[in-house]
Amino acid sequence: MVKAYLRYVHEEAFGLLSSPYANVAFFSPAGSPGRPSAYVLTCAGASVTLWNSVRQCPLVSFSPPSSHGSSYHHAVRLALSESRSHLAVGYSDGSVRVWATPTAADLSQLAASALPSSVSSGTHLLSPPPALTLQGHRSAITALCWSAGEDQTSFPESPRAAPGAAVDHLLISGSADGDVIVWDCVAGAGLHRLHAHAGQVTQVLALKRPRAALASETSWQCRRDTAEDMRRAEEAQEAAPQTVRGKRKVEDGRGSASARVAASRALDGPGSTRASRTLPGAGLLLVSAGKDGLVKIWDADLELCLQSLVDTLPGASKAKEVWSLAVNPQQTRLVVGCSDQLLRVYALYGLSASRRSVSGRGPGTGNEGENAPEGESADDALAANEGGEDAELHVDPHTGLRCFARFLGVLPRPAGGQKKTTCLKFACWSVRGGRRGREKTGQEDGEEEAEEEGVLIVGSGNSRSVEVFKVCGESERRKRMKRRRKRNEEKKKKREEKSRDARNTHLRFDEEEGEKEEEREDDIAARVTDEFVFLSRLHTASVVKTFHVRAVCTSQKAAADKSTKGQAPEVQVVLGLADNAFEMWRVDVQQLSNRLSQKTPESETQGDKDDACFKQLCRVASGGHRGTVRQLAVSHDSAYLLSIADEGFKVWTTHTRQCVKSVSIDLPLCGFFVAGNDYVVLGTKAGDLLLFDVGACAVRQRLEHAHGGAVNALAEHPKHTGFASISADKSVKLFVFHLSDSGSPQKKEDSGNVQFRQVGSLPLPDQGLDVRYSMDGKFLICALLDMTVLVFYSDTCKLFLSLYGHQLPVLTLAVSSDSTRLATGSADKTVKIWGLDFGNIQQSLLAHDDAVTQVLFLFGTHYLLSASSDASLKLWDVDRQSCLVAILPSASKSPLRCLAASQDGDRVFVADASRLLQCWRRTSEQLFAEEEEERRWEESAEREALREDGVLVSTATSAAVVMDRTSKRTMETVRTTERLME
């Protein structure tokens, strides 16, 4: 007869506020005005939570529909559409889900309602279902963005655009398999698959396509085609025989060519859709970066790579990976962050999103310096306008092909920070620039023109600070350029005066040539430093993993500052921290700029000035652990869950997953509930043992230096009369509980309380890692660092068995409820089953792909749970010697640290390295081992099919071009196809 088992399903994830492996973002409702809002989006497990940072409470939880454990995956990327009406979330299995975001009215209604009873629980939160699910990637999503509208410059916190002005139905996703897919969210299907990179796609950006630039490009293309046709006609006329018939044919050919040119110009005019669909670069433009060290510019409609940017800096081979990209709102600058401390800056051509009129000149017309302001050279104008509207099209002089980007120089980050640049963000605003001269556009003399300024925020992902760079406007760049060149001229004059007395004329000539070459190199490198100026660092108490930035409109400062145009130079930054929290800061850019212009030397008051420029608006940190979760324990009545982390411990209810107690203690490592759930025994890294009263939140007993090293594990006696502790000082100590009875008046209030005292000690040959009692209380079992397991008699402390078999240290122990079998998990990725009667190995299971962190027998059964650093949780039937089901698949970056189960095995709790706690509940649904094994074979076949698809398609370095679908082949799609064929 086939044996049936009960299935575990995911019930809830709690305890995580902001995932360290995902990004954060500001959120403003679609119907809200232009003022900044206090809403923040964060990823927590498989869901995305919308927080009210002022009230520090969650409002909306965007969670995928509940399903079997094999389909549970973590959210790793989120992206908000330009109209703020849709939210896209990428998952670790390669899927993308799209939700409709709540409106301002919905959020106002939620804000008026009562707060949830616990911010760490998702109970009573608004949880809308996803509107769309997209499947096409073979690996985890690593980059996600929405397409932007045409001819529309969208600055942060600007008023909502008119309906239909922005085209945000196209979603672009990149994954670890190196592919970039363009999705049509209206049709719910993929449009294009780009085999972008040989490695992981780290970031992808969609560029706006301004109509003015497209019209100028089309006009220039038509003129070039006309000149080319006329040149060919003249060559044909010269080569043809000079006969009457030949002349007539040449004239006819010339006329037909002219007619074709006229027709082409009529069809490919500025407003023609044919031109926008046929010209390379006229479609959806994407910029992608990958770990292969390349940055590529794509025309997604043609599925064509227009340009590849290769780093050619000296010593750039050490920075092989590109981690981040940033394009300013005007689309004139591209900043690339790599694995070193240098930011690569590129000028973009023909993509300027400026509102000003765009000239129709092509490259090389000779009028580059025509509109230079008075007193400024043409070179100065070109340097200041590099990549702007006056440089729409650029042709590589070596290849003759059009270039969308050209390398300008490097921007060195300040010393003292981390090397790798993982996050780059622009925030810009409009200011009133200097007066420009009369131009052909009909402007009057002395008319002021708006220009853009802003900041560039740089983060490394492993540092406690982010760097703030100022993006100078055009007028300020010109001023800085003039001052720099003036200083260079003064230095040059001084050098010339010193070289007049030189005797060797040839030597002086060689020195002058070398100085000129150095000046040219310095001038090229200084273009970037003229535009980007380092202001300061924003320091935090925790490691900053990710951030998001926006410009803030402050009307009071705007009225006081005449140079601004509706907005003040102030930005807000939300920081996703590594300690399960996020913070919101305000950066006063104007004050930082004023301090920079004063040119004051570094002093002791520099820190006070920085504090005045940076102000923390809020910090959301309640409801989760700050440190790594070390152990989980369930009370004897299965009503409470104890979670122990580096900063203290928390007590949760097992049914509602609400935090009822939170206590701060220095570095606890292990603990358990004393019978009655009133006390908790804790062991610390300093070797202390604590008896904590949960109800009174007070320490009832502290045994300092109970061990000479860290207390690695505690084991309660099955009869609840005492416990054993094992430590790194190579000893095991035994304790018993008793009621205190003191006659002294000083300790009268402590009489009748539970306390413990030591009754025995046992030396060990090496450091102890784990300890357990057998369920009948007969044996005391210890796991050691020397890869052995020692079994002692608990009453006499004599050695009974010494178990050898693991090749790496034994990390965890578990004893079955009938005290007949012992399970050990080791760092060698195996789980071994031992018999406690003779100490023989009954089974050796290659359980996981990484170290086994904890094993646990379900009470009354021989079902074994195993957790591993490969992020998987598996259920085994020891009697069948097989894996029943992978409750949690190995599909996330967070290793599992510990697990616990209720006394009846109805609920299983797991904690991972990201501080996320998950609850799995046993249902009445039956599962069969044979069916689960068949399903695992099918999943293996799917992975093999995906690998075959990856071999068939062209890679990023292959010369072949193979059309590839945006879908993903699975066993379900294969069965559906077979049914259709039948």
TrEMBL record:
UniProt xrefs under SMART domains: WD40
Pfam families, per database record: Beta-prop_WDR3_2nd (PF25172), WD40 (PF00400)
GO cellular component, one term: Pwp2p-containing subcomplex of 90S preribosome
Region (Disordered): 227-275, 357-378, 435-457, 477-522
InterPro entries, A to Z: TBC1_cilium_biogenesis (IPR051570), WD40/YVTN_repeat-like_dom_sf (IPR015943), WD40_repeat_CS (IPR019775), WD40_repeat_dom_sf (IPR036322), WD40_rpt (IPR001680)
PROSITE patterns reported in the protein's UniProt record: WD_REPEATS_1 (PS00678), WD_REPEATS_2 (PS50082), WD_REPEATS_REGION (PS50294)
Record protein name field: WD domain, G-beta repeat-containing protein
Upper lineage: Eukaryota, Sar, Alveolata, Apicomplexa, Conoidasida
Biased composition (Acidic residues): 444-454, 510-522
GO term, biological process aspect, one: maturation of SSU-rRNA
GO molecular function, one term: snoRNA binding
Composition-biased stretches (Basic and acidic residues): 487-509
Keywords: Repeat, WD repeat
Ranges of compositional bias, category Low complexity: 255-266
WD repeat feature ranges: 285-299, 803-844, 845-886
